[in-house]
Each structure stands twice: as structure tokens, then as C-alpha cells.
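Deliverable D2.4 — example input (C-alpha cells):
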């Protein structure tokens, strides 16, 4: 029969072993996914879209941070509107500086702030933030929850947010500890791409996954717009729990002490506003006016010139023709902003 002394020793060793094991697990995770080459290989076969956003974005951030002796001159932030609607080449030609597009699907200001916070040591010179009405009322994406997220929560009532959305925030923080958990959907999508020939993928003989979701797709037929005009979208948000936190995140993104920034009221197809709640649209207009009054550089959709219905794939995303127009016009407007040090 084992003595009480040996049983006590095992109980004391168990917590130490557990913590050591957890520490080794976390260290291995961080070491693996901090390698830009590993991220680049996984991102090569990860299709763009909501499932791939965390991995693709992490790979892009790692490339920026690992770039020797170079600073990104312009950082494009926003939702898939920006990711698929703005061409960095137009900014590089017009401004004569580097450009990185780190927009993500449904990227809200809280998500953008978390992305930008990872690049602060890299000396981003100008942040171009694309916005449209619904983004100010979305919850943050779990894969982009971080310390910057929590700094914005008091604006929305810290106790209420932590009580009502504890699961989302806790799961987001857990993914910060385990990047594999954060990338699980992206890795599953990549597996679907390379399943036919894993060896060719490992040897980089397999073509990479397309970068843009809507590339070369024709606009939706007119009957699609006729059906949706004057009807609320099923996912149209109202001002709610996350609105104040999203505004606080945008305030931080536009804070001149962090460097110059430009806020872009991104163009939408005529009829889009009829699919959103009136209070959401009114809040958006008042918010743009408030940021202008504070001295922020705000570029309205009207300032980007007219766009034809054929320039839109749907109500919010641009075709290749629309992408070329908006990219060139916005780059020209940004070039006129006094932002260079």
C-alpha cells in the first residue's frame, strides 16, 4: 500500500508537470507560426475569404515585419470591399512608396486596429481605412481579438460586454495562445486545395489559391438588385452592443499621434442604402461628420467620382473595372493629403 508521503509528492508534482507541458505547447505553437516561411507556405494554398482571413493576414503581416530595411508607406485596412476593391499598385505609382493591403472579410474597426497594432514597430507611414455603414456595429472577429480589442471595451461598458460576450472574447484570447486553433479553418480549406497532390504543393509546383474572391466575376443580374432594393438585408445590423467599442477603435486608428490616417467612405452601388436600417445610416452620417469636425482626413464616396452600375459585382463589391477606377481616384486624393514626414 503506497504511503501518504508518496501520494502527497505526486499531487505536488502534477501541477508543475501540467504547467511545464502547457508552456512547451505554447512555445512550440508560437515558434512554428512566427516563421514567415511556414506562414507563407500555408497561405499559398489558403483560399481568400472568412475562413482564411486569420492565416492569410498573419502571413502578410509577417512578410511586412520581415522586410529588410523597408517600411510600408501605405497600409490599406478595411473589409473585403477594400481587399478586393483597391489595388496597391495604384498607390505605389501615384505616391512613389510601398503599399500593403491587409483588409479582411467583414473587417470592422476593432479588427483593423488589432492588425495595425502588430505593425506599429514597422513604422507604417499612412493608414487608409475603408468604411461603410454596417461595419460600425459588427462584433470583432474571433481570430482578431487581442489586447487592442480590450482597450476599446470600456467605451461600450466593460462589465456589460464581458458579461454578454464572454464566450467570443475568451475564445479569441485562446486563439492568441494557440495560432493552430486560430488557423484551423484556413488549414482545412488549404487541405482541400492540396489534397489531390500534396507533394506538388510541398514542392511549390501546385498553383497557389486565387487571391481575390470576386476576380473576373460578372456583376449580379439586374433582377438581383430589383429583388433586394427597398428590402432589409437579413444581416443588416443596428447600433448596439459593439457600436461604441467600434467607434473607440476607429478613434485610435485615426489618432494623429500614431501617424497620419485617411478615412474613406467607400462607394456602394445605388440602392444599397435601402437595404439597411435608417438608424444605421443616420449614425454613419453623423459619425463621418464628427470625425471631420475633429480634423480627420475624410474622403467621401462622392469625392471618388461617379461609378456605373456595371462597376459593381453586388451592392458593395467592385468589378475589375470599378477596382481600377476607385484605386486610381483614391490614390490621387490620398496623394493630395499632407501626410509625408
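Example output (designed residues):
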Amino acid at each position: 500500500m503506497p504511503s501518504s508521503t508518496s501520494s502527497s509528492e505526486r499531487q505536488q508534482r502534477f501541477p508543475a508537470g501540467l504547467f511545464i507541458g502547457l508552456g512547451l505547447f505554447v512555445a512550440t505553437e508560437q515558434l512554428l507560426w512566427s516563421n514567415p516561411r511556414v506562414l507563407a507556405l500555408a497561405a499559398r494554398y489558403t483560399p481568400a475569404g472568412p475562413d482564411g482571413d486569420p492565416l492569410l493576414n498573419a502571413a502578410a503581416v509577417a512578410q511586412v515585419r520581415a522586410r529588410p530595411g523597408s517600411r510600408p508607406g501605405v497600409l490599406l485596412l478595411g473589409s473585403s470591399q477594400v481587399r478586393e476593391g483597391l489595388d496597391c499598385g495604384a498607390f505605389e505609382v501615384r505616391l512613389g512608396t510601398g503599399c500593403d493591403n491587409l483588409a479582411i472579410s467583414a473587417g470592422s474597426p476593432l479588427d483593423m486596429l488589432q492588425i495595425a497594432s502588430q505593425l506599429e514597430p514597422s513604422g507604417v507611414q499612412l493608414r487608409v481605412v475603408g468604411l461603410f455603414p454596417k461595419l460600425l456595429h459588427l462584433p470583432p472577429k474571433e481570430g482578431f481579438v487581442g489586447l487592442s480589442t480590450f482597450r476599446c471595451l470600456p467605451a461600450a461598458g466593460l462589465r456589460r460586454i464581458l458579461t454578454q460576450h464572454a464566450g467570443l472574447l475568451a475564445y479569441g484570447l485562446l486563439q492568441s495562445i494557440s495560432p493552430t486553433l486560430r488557423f484551423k479553418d484556413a488549414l482545412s480549406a488549404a487541405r482541400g486545395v492540396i489534397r489531390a497532390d500534396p507533394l506538388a504543393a510541398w514542392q511549390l509546383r501546385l498553383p497557389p489559391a486565387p487571391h481575390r474572391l470576386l476576380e473576373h466575376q460578372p456583376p449580379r443580374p439586374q433582377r438581383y438588385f430589383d429583388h433586394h432594393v427597398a428590402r432589409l438585408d437579413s444581416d443588416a445590423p443596428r447600433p448596439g452592443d459593439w457600436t461604441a467599442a467600434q467607434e473607440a477603435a476607429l478613434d485610435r486608428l485615426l489618432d494623429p499621434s500614431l501617424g497620419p490616417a485617411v478615412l474613406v467612405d467607400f462607394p456602394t452601388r445605388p440602392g444599397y442604402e435601402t437595404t439597411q436600417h435608417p438608424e444605421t445610416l443616420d449614425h454613419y452620417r453623423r459619425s463621418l461628420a464628427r470625425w471631420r469636425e475633429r480634423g480627420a482626413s475624410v474622403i467621401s464616396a462622392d469625392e471618388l467620382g461617379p461609378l456605373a452600375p456595371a462597376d459593381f459585382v453586388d451592392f458593395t463589391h467592385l468589378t475589375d473595372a470599378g477596382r481600377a477606377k476607385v484605386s486610381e481616384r483614391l490614390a490621387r486624393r490620398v496623394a493630395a493629403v499632407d501626410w509625408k514626414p
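The chain has a mean pLDDT of 88.
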